[in-house]
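User: structure tokens for this one?
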Amino acid sequence: MAFSAAVLVLMPVAASAQETGADTVAKVYAEVCSKCHGPTARGMASFPRLSDKEKAYLADRLRRYRAGEMVGPNTPLMMPHAVNLTDAEIDELAAYISTAFAGN
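Assistant:
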């Protein structure tokens, strides 16, 4: 997997040549998403829990944010994170979140 340059710029951690796609997705979550959604995707303050969401729901939300569609009060915060994600990156991130944190 190759996350877009915009997402990787948000990550201070450099990816090594030995990293797998799963490693990269986990780093993206840890370095970007967890700042608002928490380290186990349980949500924090006004930022929603993700650990109880299905992959399809998460992917749909990310695509709607990427398209600039208002889908809730945190939309202005999510748009910059989603705007440069590809469909493949959205699918991988949604799959990671829906499986890595299921049951949290």
